Amino acid sequence: MTAAAAPKPAVARQAPSDLTLTFADGPTVRAVAAAAADPEWLLADRLAALAGFEALPIETNPLYTSYVDLRNARLSAVRPLPPSARQAAAGKAPLPEGAAAYAEMTENRVTALVLSPEARDAGVILETLASLQARDPELMRRLLEGGCALPEHDKLAQMTRALWSDGLLLSVPDGVRLEQPIVLRWAQGAPNSALISRTIISVGSDAEVAVVEEQVASAAVAGEAQSFFAGTTEVQLGAGSTLSFAGLQDFSANQVAFQHRSAVLAQGATVRWALAQLGCRVIRSRIDNTLDGNGSSVEQAEIVFGSADQLFDLTSYTRHVGRDTTGNLLSKGALSDRSRAYMKGLATIDLSAHGTDSYLGEFAMLLSKQARSVAIPSLEIDQPDCRRVAHASSVGPIDESLLFYLESRGLDPDEARKFIVLGYLEPVVARVPLAAAQDRLRDLLEAKWAASATSLPAAVA
Amino acid sequence: MSDQDLIIRDLHVAPAAKPDHEILKGIDLAVGRGEVHAIMGPNGSGKTTLAYALMGHPAYVIKSGKVLWKGHDLLKLSADKRARLGMFLAFQYPMAIPGLSVASFLRSAINARRSGLNPDPAVDPTDAFKGGIPMGEFRKLVREKMTLLKMDESIASRYVNEGFSGGEKKRLEMLQMAVLEPEMAILDETDSGLDIDALRIVAEGVNAMLNPNMGVLVITHYQRLLNYITPDTVHVLAAGRIVASGGKDLALRLEDEGYAPILAEAGLEGEVGDEAPDGATPNEAAAPAMEAAH
Fold first, then answer.
1. In chain B, what residues touch A404 (CB-CB under 8 Å)?
2. Interface predicted TM-score (ipTM) of this complex, two decimals
């Protein structure tokens, strides 16, 4: 080193498993509870979660411990937003075309909360957890106490349970079948802010509902400082009910997000997850499906389109408990630049789960030489009397022979790659239950393609 | 001979993975507009290699030789440019493209073909809203060609070749050929995997497409297809060389006698079959990983 070299600013060395959040502590939990005027049981629930958070390692599954990397999550300056203030105009926000209800959170403000007259007349409830607490404290306690279906051994899930300050309840009564989807929208991105929330979805027996959840960058995104989002989707499905849930995550490149989604299914219930992950610097997502009821089923399709130095850390746990349950889970990633995806999945077949049909597939297409992906599908089978239990995975570049096929029809290599990559991700797009959201997702994928294709060296892929 | 003929001169081709192992060892061939040439040959003789090399498959390298067509040194053009110039390859094993509908694929291919070697920047072949063939004209054209090939219109909204039967794949190849109106069509074992009825429909479709502006190279194992599509010339490819050429009678003679006598005349006993095992094409090995991905 020469004497003229400027000294580098000292950056604290961060290990891959270091979570740099500084506010996950007792005083903050008590402050959040006080600000929300929590009942005692809720404060106790938060403190129990905090104890879990403090005791747990970042990853408890020994298969996955080497695939945690939070080094790009620089959260030491992040502070939680105070609990939401409901905007007076929220109830007058326009309902998106074709939607039955709409809730929008912008940073910590409830900026829309509206139901169509049909949904309201059918008894559908969409409200903040603060208004649920005021309206029906007993129901609130039944839905939330004990962490509900949040995974007990997940450090970050327990962090969310300890510190959440905003939340939504969607409740669909027994037998109500809504034709139009419900739209939930989270817009966040103010530098150094943290939004921590829970969303509870309760679907009554024989009810049917579709939800489109959008997580997007707010207008407040600025500069290099990161913002932090932690959110849940906690679903209880009654007998014979169906939930189709489309989640579209397109936060800014300075966002760090932890998502926890869980579904507990009664007899004959069905949940369909269609999830698209496009945004964030670091996103860690976990899905827990519990197929309790006989004949219940989960269909899960998740796509990732990565660019720059994004990291997508995705885990799903599916537990077959009832008889004749079905799991069909598919994760697909397309990764350009230096982006990375960890796709981890575990299907567990309990001794009680006779007649299980379980499939778990994890695939990644690498669009640049620096892109990386790891696919770790695994199975734990205690009941051998199954219809099918299978997993599959592959990670590799675009298949040259697919490219040649399209090029032989006159498409230039870029056009051919675009068709292959967007086509590869299309199965999730096709499952989004609202035309406008589907178009938006297609546009986002196209835009992301256009942005990443320009940075792609011609010789690669 | 005119510069409109496809002229192949002393073409030597090897797999990119084994560049010292020549599969084609000096092919000379000329196919004029309006002519139908058949290439027959035993397994492993290099038939599919010839088709891929003419179309520009990246798994093959040209060791030496020239291919001239329409005033271009064809081997200097990428596969997409060859297609835009009017060359078409009907694949023996068409690839499945999950998530891409047949309709979008056909529309893009038509737009690319019609734009030729100097594409109009205002037309994006992958975007239905950026120029190109008007939707009404496109629908009419596809419907007309589907009728010709007795295809069900519902195929237009399915993903390209995904979950298609062998026969459906081959018909989709013929549909592409019909809408793209190539000036040089290479049919690689289009008869394989077809039942007798499907074979007749496909062959009738090809016959209806024949025109004085298009040269055709039909690659086949069996004489069967040539009962329907009458070749002007039949060539026998063995051990990487054309060892015999003749009229339609040559195909009939092969049907009667097998390849042995002709190979013996060429002094080639026991020399065939040094290609990849079972004539396997490189895409077969690479395909399953992606096909499983849905």
1. 55-59, 79, 283
2. 0.90
